[in-house]
Amino acid sequence: MNEHVLDKLKVLAESAKYDISCASSGTTRKNRPGTIGSTEGWGICHSFTEDGRCVSLLKIMLTNACIYDCAYCINRRSNDIPRATLTVQELIDLTIEFYRRNYIEGLFLSSGVINNPDYTMERMVRVVKELRTNYHYNGYIHMKSIPGASRELVNEAGLYADRLSVNIEIPKEQNLKMLAPEKDHQSIYKPMFYIQQGVLASADERKRFRYAPRFAPAGQSTQMIIGATDESDKDILQLSTSLYQRPSMKRVYYSGFIPVNSYDTRLPALKQAPLVRENRLYQADWLMRFYGFRANEIVDDSYPNLDLEIDPKLAWALRHSEAFPIDVNKADYGLILRVPGIGVKSAGLIISSRKHRRITASTLTKMGVVMKKARFFITCGELPTFTVNEVTPEYLRLALMSKKSSRKEPDSKQLSFVFTE
Amino acid sequence: MIVFQYDKTFEGLLTAVFDAYSRKVFPERLVSEDEPLPLFAEQVHRVITEPEKSTRVWKALEKKLTKSVCAMLMHVWLSELPESDELLFRYMRKAFDAPMSIATYFADDDVLEVKKIAQKVSREREHVTQFVRFQKASDDLFFAPASPMYNVLPLTLDYFTDRFADQIWLIYDVKRRYGYYYDLKTTSEVMLDNDEYLLSGKLDEALMAQDEKLFQEMWKEYTLSLTIKERLNPKLQRQYMPRRFWKYLPEKN
Q1: Which of A162, A186, A220 finishes a domain?
Q2: Which of A67, A131, A260, B239 shows a CA-CA span of 20 to 30 A to A362?
Q3: CA-to-CA distance for A118 and A113, rounded, in angstroms?
């Protein structure tokens, strides 16, 4: 280890940072005596950068040199940026030493494509194989599968990595072809399919043989760039739904487009990354995964985009005010989950504690329910209050809009003076 | 007012519960032996900690409640918050008196409070597993300082022993001045006689292993390069990684 590695580390971290995924969950692997590391069911975030994102894994690229020229990517071959490549040994040493100091939960290995997809993939597989077999490392490993890599290499990677991922990047194929002419959906969906096949085959084997090897036990994930092309939220969420229906798909990440190559005219000129839209998409994603919502309930043809001013659950409730108010003392779990202001945790608390006695508004507050929103959508056996139907959804939307955004709009009653020189 | 005096240990608290039930007298306040008695203390009972009594109470609790709820009670005890012992006393009494398990009776103030404190403590436990940073000393010992808000070090041992099984380490609570030492086989509690040089939380450079400084530097530079400048949000960073942990983080020093 020396100063050179430090420089390379800086360059490669700079290139790897646009990959959003940092999850280290989904696998539990206990330590075997005398070896290093363990994997917990829930990953642990070991640090947070100044942009508020968690650093759980050593997110790094093998190399940031690339033969492709994708318009949205900082590492495209026509960009004039410093390039660096880590050797297999340097990567292993970094991972092990950072791990021993409790800096990280594991390794997230990605890479630019050099020579051809298989050549790159083969070197990446060598890193994870060495870590697992020679260094007896039990920590988490997330590995990117290179688009276009062969089935054999994906299968080998799955034996050592906890999670594999291939990024979709652009939801619609014609848009992907416009921004990345050398790529197509075929080259992305194929490795995804290999991973899925591997996971299913291994699950089947393990039913019969207890010690059959696990294949990517934490499944796979993918990422889409939001706002670089003209897809509506409906397109995006429908694609996510179809991805989540695949057996091994665990997470879809949304990455607000950051104009890294602003000179490219195929890309929209944005002043700032669409952070609010990204946030709303994640909220919608959560609704689909944990709240039993379907994509076409959140967005449909008449509302193809998410409301940026209010969250998607509140938006749904306001569109369906006929379903409310809901009696928290009687309604079942699924209905209680649909109330804005009540999350998975408080819904669970309500269900389990109403066995003992009736729930009142003050207990709800103590349980952590956001009564500012919830009170318009529930009854709890107390005196009648104004519900969404009395105050009308339109008024409620205005009242509950996030204050910050409404403040930005100039007040129409306020005169503004413009001084010109 | 009925007051029980006890030795401020968990076993002592369990013995107090035993005494209360055997004497059929339930205290309104619990105080330590050297604490001045509250005003209007009419009836004072001094609890003498006995392992048989405390284990009997604990076993009865385990029968009445689930394992995870008992763990929650332990968490509340380790919070070291004022009056958390009285809260635990009331909780145990309710658990024994109720015909069915009170574990899910969150409409009750004490049950909810126990859950909330236990949650806070377990969050602090998680923070320790997140933000403890080992520094490698020249004799291959990995040293980490910690000063958690609650006394959560005992709760983190599972994690550290399992994960760092092939390295010798020492985690030292500089606030409470004790720690745990792992010698490749077992983890044991240690109290160091002259620990002044550890209290700053930083190993002296003379004591550091050869590459230690470089790795700290690398980690710092790495997290800096990982920041996306277009999305800066320091408030969110502080929310997830509270300032009080920063003094031991190489990336923040």
Answers
A1: A220
A2: B239
A3: 9
Percent of chain A with pLDDT strictly greater than 90: 61
CB contact under 8 A, A51 and B106: no
Which of these, B104, B91, B95, lies nearest to A359 by C-alpha position? B104
The tally of domains found in chain A comes to: 2
Structure tokens at A295: 């994509």
- Give the nearest partner residue to B222 out of A9, A101, A363, using CB atoms: A9
- Whether residue A299 lies inside any domain: the answer is no
Interface of B with A in 91-120 (CB under 8 A): 102, 104-109, 112
Q: Which residues pair with A135 in a beta bridge?
A: none
* A277 min Cα distance to partner chain B (Å): 14
| Separation of alpha carbons B170 and B164, rounded Å | 11
Averaged pLDDT of chain A:
89
Instruction: With CA atoms as reference, report the closest residue to A91 among A48, A65, A130.
Output: A130
Contact A176, A185 (CB under 8 A): yes
Cis peptide before B145 (omega within 30 of 0): no
Tell how far CA A13 is from the center of its chain. 19
Is the pLDDT at A407 greater than 50? The verdict is no
Which of residues A220, A250, A285 is at a domain's end?
Answer: A220
Q: How confident is the model at residue A417 (pLDDT cuts 50, 70, 90)?
A: low
Chain A contacts of B106, Cβ < 8 Å?
349, 352-353, 363, 367
DSSP string for residues in B31-42: EETTSPPPTT--
Q: Is residue A269 part of a domain?
A: no
Domain extents in chain B: 2-124, 132-252
pTM for the predicted model, two decimal places: 0.87
Maximum Cα–Cα distance across chain B: 68
